[in-house]
C-alpha cells in the first residue's frame, strides 16, 4: 500500500488582509499531492459564526479527483489552485479547511475573519507577511468603519493632574528616530501647546519605529497598534509617511491599513485622532498625491481631522527648498523636511489640533485652574504682607 502525503495553504485574494464592510471573502486554496500515486481526496470547509448570540456551525464538503502526483515536480510546481467565494455574515467568522482521505484528516488549515474594532493584541505577522493569531490561524480583517460618532471620545486630559498624553506615530516626517527634538516638529508642538494652555501639561511621545523601508506595511500596522494602544493616550497623531510613494505601497493596501488602524485606535483607546497627509517630495510631487487623497478620504469617513501637508507645501513658494540639506557644494534633498520645513509641519499640525480641540482643552484648563486656586487659600494668606513688609500672622 503506497502512502499519499498532502499539503495545502490558504490565502485571501488581493494585496491586503482587509475586506470592506459587507464584502465577499475571496480565497485561493493551493493543494499539492507530494507522492507518486493519485487517489481522490475530500476538501471539507467548516464555518463557525454567531447567530442570535448562539454559535452556528455549517460544513461543506467536495470531492477532488484531479489532484495529480507532484513527487517529480519542482518546489514551485504541482500545485492545484482552487478559488472560493464566501458571503460574510454579521460578526466574526472562523473557517477550518481540511483535506480528508478515507475519512481521516491529512492536512488542516484555519482562517478567521474578524473586525478591527476588537482587541488585536494576539495578532502577529507570519513569514509571508500575513496576519495570524493563536496556533497559526490566518487572520483577515473586515473593516469595521468605526467613526468618531460611534462612541464618545475620552476627555482630553487627566482631570486630576492636567496631563495630556499625545502619541505621534511617525518614523519619517520628523527625520530619523532620535533626531534633535528642538528642530523637530514634535518638540515644537509640545512647547506650543504647553504655552497656549498653561494649566495643562502636554507630553508628546514619538515612539522609536524602524524606517518603513525595513519592513512591509503589515508590520508597520502592528507597530501602530502596539504603540498607540499601549499607553491609552488622549490624542494620537497618525502620520502618513512621505516615502510611501517611493516604496510603491499599493494604494489599496495603504487605504486598508490606514482605515484598520483608525478603527482600532478609536475603538480601543477612544482617543482623539489626527491624520497627517504626506507632503510632496522634491522632483516627484505626484508620488504623494494619491496617498494624500486617501488620507483625506479616510478622515472624512471617520470624522477625524486631517492636517493636509500635501496641499500646504504645494501652496508654499519654493516649497522644494524646505527639503534641502544644509551645507555641501551641490544641493541635495532629504526625504523629510529640513528645520524650516519642520516649522511649517508644526504650524499645520498645531492649527489642526487647536481647531478641533480648543473648546475642550480650554474648558479643561479653566477647571484645573479653578480647582488649584480653591485648594490653596492658606498659602495665599501666608504670602500676604502687612505694612512695612512684615508678614501678617495667619
SSE map:
Blueprint lengths: L5 E7 L5 E2 L4 E10 L7 E11 L2 E11 L14 E9 L5 E9 L2 E11 L8 E3 L5 E3 L3 E6 L20 E7 L15 H12 L4 E5 L11 H14 L4 E5 L11 H19 L2 E6 L11 H14 L2 E4 H6 L24 H36 L2 H6 L12
Parallel strand pairs: 2-11, 8-11, 12-13, 12-14, 14-15, 15-16
Antiparallel strand pairs: 1-3, 3-6, 4-5, 4-7, 7-8, 9-10, 10-11
Describe what this molecule looks like in 3D.
- The longest helix has 36 residues, at 339-374.
- Helix 2 (217-230) packs parallel to helix 3 (251-269).
- The protein is 27% helix and 28% strand.
- With 394 residues, the chain is α/β, with parallel strands linked by helices.
- The protein is built from seven helices and 16 strands.
- Residues 376-394 have low confidence and may be disordered.
- The chain starts with 5 loop residues before the first strand and ends in a 12-residue tail after the last helix.
Helix content: 25-40%
The number of strands is 16
Distance between the termini: 103 Å
Molecular shape = elongated
Structural class: alpha/beta
Percent strand equals 25-35%
Question: Low-confidence spans: pLDDT under 50, at least 5 residues?
Answer: 376-394
What are the secondary-structure elements, in order, as H or E? EEEEEEEEEEEEHEHEHEHEHHH
Number of helices: 7
Radius of gyration: 28 Å
In round numbers, the mean pLDDT is 82
**Largest sheet, described in full?**
8 strands, mixed
Amino acid at each position: 500500500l503506497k502512502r499519499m502525503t498532502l499539503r495545502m495553504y490558504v490565502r485571501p485574494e488581493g494585496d491586503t488582509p482587509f475586506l470592506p464592510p459587507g464584502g465577499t471573502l475571496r480565497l485561493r486554496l493551493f493543494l499539492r499531492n507530494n507522492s507518486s500515486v493519485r487517489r481522490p481526496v475530500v476538501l471539507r470547509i467548516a464555518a463557525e459564526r454567531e447567530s442570535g448570540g448562539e454559535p452556528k456551525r455549517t460544513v461543506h464538503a467536495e470531492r477532488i479527483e484531479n489532484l495529480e502526483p507532484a513527487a517529480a515536480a519542482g518546489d514551485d510546481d504541482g500545485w492545484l489552485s482552487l478559488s472560493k467565494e464566501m458571503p460574510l455574515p454579521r460578526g466574526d467568522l472562523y473557517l477550518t479547511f481540511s483535506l480528508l482521505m478515507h475519512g481521516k484528516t491529512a492536512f488542516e488549515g484555519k482562517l478567521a475573519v474578524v473586525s478591527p474594532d476588537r482587541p488585536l493584541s494576539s495578532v502577529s505577522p507570519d513569514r509571508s507577511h500575513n496576519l495570524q493569531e493563536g496556533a497559526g490561524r490566518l487572520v483577515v480583517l473586515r473593516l469595521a468603519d468605526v467613526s468618531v460618532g460611534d462612541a464618545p471620545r475620552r476627555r482630553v486630559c487627566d482631570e486630576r493632574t492636567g496631563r495630556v498624553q499625545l502619541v505621534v506615530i511617525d518614523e519619517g516626517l520628523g527625520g530619523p528616530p532620535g533626531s534633535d527634538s528642538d528642530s523637530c516638529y514634535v518638540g515644537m508642538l509640545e512647547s506650543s501647546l504647553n504655552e497656549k494652555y498653561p494649566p495643562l501639561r502636554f507630553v508628546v511621545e514619538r515612539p522609536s519605529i524602524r524606517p518603513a523601508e525595513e519592513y512591509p506595511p503589515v508590520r508597520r500596522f502592528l507597530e501602530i497598534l502596539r504603540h498607540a494602544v499601549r499607553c491609552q493616550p488622549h490624542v494620537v497623531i497618525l502620520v502618513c509617511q512621505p516615502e510611501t510613494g517611493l516604496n510603491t505601497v499599493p494604494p489599496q493596501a495603504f487605504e486598508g491599513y490606514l482605515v484598520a488602524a483608525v478603527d482600532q485606535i478609536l475603538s480601543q483607546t477612544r482617543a482623539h485622532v489626527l491624520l497627517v497627509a504626506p507632503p510632496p517630495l522634491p522632483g516627484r510631487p505626484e508620488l504623494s498625491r494619491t496617498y494624500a487623497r486617501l488620507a483625506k478620504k479616510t478622515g472624512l469617513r471617520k470624522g477625524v481631522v486631517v492636517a493636509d501637508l500635501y496641499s500646504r507645501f504645494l501652496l508654499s513658494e519654493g516649497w522644494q527648498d524646505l527639503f534641502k540639506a544644509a551645507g555641501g557644494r551641490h544641493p541635495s534633498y532629504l526625504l523629510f523636511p529640513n528645520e524650516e520645513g519642520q516649522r511649517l509641519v508644526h504650524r499645520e499640525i498645531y492649527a489642526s489640533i487647536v481647531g478641533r480641540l480648543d473648546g475642550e482643552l480650554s474648558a479643561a484648563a479653566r477647571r484645573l485652574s479653578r480647582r488649584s486656586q480653591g485648594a490653596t487659600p492658606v498659602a495665599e494668606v501666608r504670602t500676604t504682607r502687612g505694612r512695612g513688609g512684615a508678614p501678617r500672622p495667619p
